[in-house]
């Protein structure tokens, strides 16, 4: 028996999107996307333009904001288009690209948060050695590590998925994701599952590394009260971001594999896309409000722009 031909287009099922609510959802999604772009670009420009913020911690934060723009660009424009369309289709190649961009965004977030926890550990627990360890070369290496390793992992995942012979073309989600491809395969996907679980374990290792770093930080802050203020100011935003990203991603990964079919489609849709809305929108706000240097630099740049405009 000849294997079925590969589909050239994939159908994205979004039955939970009632027609009468689509315009409302479109307006809310567009507003969220505009806010995501504004807060992330504002924080990136503040860090780039303010020379005092050219420090490892803020460079990693800039990388986190850039990653949010990268990941949401793979989802929001297509989702906004689908909300105004009666058919939710995407090309086969476009679907694979969406898998790559969204998955590499999610795993890069974890890598950046792991790098940031290492930076905070050095700054608080080993301050005398900080500048000798966090050199420009080390910072460059860590930024490259946080971006290249996730991209390599997801390239392997997507290439393996592209080799699967599919017996269907419907993706039961608002966007393309790897588990949906695997479920459509006509043949065994054992190797894909092994590689997928290896990637999950790798990033669980990142989470474990972050927890160990925070255990050291909390222990140090309790032992030396004078360091407690620095811990609360610089580490609490990071911890909130970590909990935010971990909770949303873990729910999505676990629900995709083991979720109940009795859950309403609208709730499934919301839970599936929250990690593409909540962390990218809240992370820059959390950091911008809690880090005094970032907040002061942002307002100073805003005042300077107004003064320039007034002179003009």
From TrEMBL:
It is found in: Cell membrane. One of its GO terms (cellular component) is plasma membrane. Gene3D superfamilies: Rhodopsin 7-helix transmembrane proteins (1.20.1070.10). InterPro entries: GPCR1_Superfamily_Member, GPCR_Rhodpsn, GPCR_Rhodpsn_7TM, Olfact_rcpt. It is a multi-pass membrane protein. GO terms for molecular function: G protein-coupled receptor activity; odorant binding; olfactory receptor activity. It comes from the Eukaryota. The chain crosses the membrane at residues 25-49, 56-76, 96-118, 139-160, 194-218, 239-258, 270-290. Pfam families: 7tm_4. SUPFAM superfamilies: Family A G protein-coupled receptor-like. Residues 39-287 form the G-protein coupled receptors family 1 profile domain. Keywords: Cell membrane, Disulfide bond, G-protein coupled receptor, Glycoprotein, Membrane, Olfaction, Receptor, Sensory transduction, Transducer, Transmembrane, Transmembrane helix. This is G-protein coupled receptors family 1 profile domain-containing protein. It comes from Xiphophorus couchianus (Monterrey platyfish).
